[in-house]
Amino acid sequence: MSQAVHALEIPAASIVVPEITVIIPVYNEEAILPALFSRLYAVMDKLECSYECLFIDDGSTDRSAALLREQFTSRSAHTRVILLNGNFGQHAAILAGFDYMRGRRAITLDADLQNPPEEIGKLLGKMDEGFDYVGTIRIQRQDHWWRRVASGCINKLRESTTNIRMTDQGCMLRAYDYAIVQAIKQTQEINTFIPALAYLYARNPTEVKVAHSERQAGESKYSLYKLMRINFDLLTGFSLAPLQVFSTVGMVIAMLSGLLVVILVLRRLIVGPEVEGVFTLFGVMFFLIGIVLFGIGILGEYVGRIYQQVQNRPRYIVQATLENRSQEEEMSRLPGLLFLPIIMLAYVACLYCWPTMSRSRW
Ligand code: UDP
Ligand code: MG
Hints:
Layout: H1 2-9, E1 20-26, H2 33-46, E2 51-57, H3 64-74, E3 79-84, H4 90-100, E4 105-108, H5 120-128, E5 133-138, H6 145-161, E6 174-177, H7 178-186, H8 194-201, E7 205-210, H9 224-238, H10 241-270, H11 278-311, E8 318-322, H12 327-361
Parallel strand pairs: 1-2, 1-4, 2-3, 5-7
Antiparallel strand pairs: 3-8, 4-6, 5-6
Helix pairs in contact: 6-9, 7-8, 10-11
Bound molecules: uridine-5'-diphosphate (UDP) and magnesium ion.
């Protein structure tokens, strides 16, 4: 049923509709790209279905863009490249991929070969079973221990504060039906977390276990700070729980301090003036100030995102695209080309006839 919807929604200009679009964000991955090309295309050629590999260069400053250009030249029938104007982040790059894809299904894949391309067939098999969104669970994740621990904590936090149910939120090897891609494209959030958004829109999601490798070359593009930012995107984008926790904690603390004031007044009346416990008082005060600052920070995370949303700046800017135009697109340019000789002929005719016409009139 969803197939019929897709046929209607795919733009008329791209009649050559591949079955699958593999979307790969690339940011300074020159060391890994040759290995990625040889493994990815080998896998896709074996799958016996039409496909395109859509690379989005996220403002790389190394030779990544040049390597992508070479790959486009050698495999232009199966390759498209979008060069972004700067570094907009992995999720913005994937959104650009969604906007430009021509396939009926999208596979998102990291460029660093941590997600083996050989697993793509497994995800497509699940989609053939009728699932519209296939997430992945990394078997034996090969990352630094601190990344694994942090991910475990964030996964638990997300489970308890949102209604998004994903076993392994960090793995970007995923498959999306075009209906979900359409829904994501219509969502105009500036800071978003695509796997969670897809889960929200999926009618029938599932997960499969996939292998995971160490980064084959280069280093992770995510510092601890960047990881924190992206996880704030996830929590603030899909839950109000952090704000609600703070209003609840604030209420409880206000009630307890009211009780404390009553007790202190009574002690003052019964016991008389007391000066002990000044340092305890400082301790309690600093603790409370810490909580207040943390609360203001959380509030700021939401307000900042509202501000960015109101600014409504583009999520990414495309500098150039490398792609073979479809026959339809070429045809749509033809009328203009056909008119050119006619206009030139008319011009020459005018030049020739004008002196004759002028003489005959005067
Ligand atoms: N990436 C990107 N823009 C960025 C950061 C990363 O396009 O600003 C790409 C990167 O080239 C890779 C993928 O996103 O293809 C995942 O990045 P990375 O492997 O560094 O993340 P990690 O595996 O450490 O979470
Ligand atoms: Mg990686």
